[in-house]
Design goal:
alpha/beta; Rossmann fold; binds adenosine-5'-diphosphate; binds magnesium ion; nucleotide-binding; ABC_transporter-like_CS
Length: about 220
């Protein structure tokens, strides 16, 4: 079976002029379709760097990322943006929603950069919003929502283009534990529907729900 996402010998060096930070040191990962993987490690171990590189938001200094069997090395920024928009759904700790914009419009946003005809946008967005149980908040602006509700909107938005993979970086980091559990249940539900989920967290308890844990330490996989 071809993995849905592979990192081959990925290194990342941040060049700070006078000093260099080696954030990733030759990381190899293969993630299969339908897997729920947690990437764990202490703060500063390279989790977010790896997540950005796996999600094609940043390029490695060395090594390559292979998505659905296609090597992304050498793709133009425009090609990468297109692949990201169709194949990867992102969920961030800080939600990254448009403020003063409705739930519906936040979820519709990625469709504007897709091939989906505009006549389908509202129907598709409502379907995703229902999936996360926010159908009675369609017209609310995102700044009128609780943290947990905001994260559910972010999950609906991440799902809207039916991506191969959901990448979540500390998605419960700004939430209380009960709300965090609720968000995790949303990911479990998506995974049971066949979505591949990569959950980045420094929380070992949270990582227990994953089928597999990848432990990073100082930029290397140690487990
Ligand atoms: N944009 C950046 N410029 C310079 N150094 C960075 C940058 N992003 C992260 N780093 C450094 O890379 C290392 C790994 O950071 P990060 O990937 O954010 O770790 P984590 O998400 O596990 O906390 C840290 O030493 C951090 O300071
Ligand atoms: Mg981080």
């Amino acid at each position: 079976m071809t993995p849905v996402l592979q990192a081959q010998n990925v290194s990342k060096i941040y060049d700070m002029g006078t000093s260099k930070i080696e954030a990733l040191k030759g990381v190899n990962i293969g993630i299969n379709k339908g897997e729920f993987v947690a990437i764990v490690g202490k703060s500063g171990s390279g989790k977010s760097t790896l997540m950005h590189i796996l999600g094609l938001l940043d390029t490695p200094t060395e090594g390559e990322i292979i998505l659905n069997g296609v090597n992304t090395k050498g793709m133009s920024e425009k090609q990468l943006a297109a692949v990201r928009n169709s194949e990867i759904g992102f969920v961030f700790q800080t939600f990254n929603l448009l403020q003063r914009t409705t739930v519906l419009d936040n979820v519709i946003l990625p469709l504007k950069y897709s091939d989906v005809p505009s006549t389908e946008w509202v129907r598709k967005a409502k379907e995703m919003i229902e999936l996360v149980g926010l159908q009675d908040r369609l017209k609310n602006k995102s700044n009128e929502l609780s943290g947990g509700q905001k994260q559910r909107v972010a999950i609906a938005r991440a799902m809207i283009n039916d991506p191969s993979i959901i990448l979540a970086d500390e998605p419960t980091g700004n939430l209380d534990s009960k709300t965090g559990d609720e968000i995790v249940n949303n990911f479990l539900r998506l995974n049971s529907r066949g979505k591949t989920i990569i959950l980045v967290t420094h929380d070992n308890d949270l990582a227990q729900i994953a089928q597999r844990r990848i432990v990073l330490k100082d930029g290397s996989i140690v487990e």
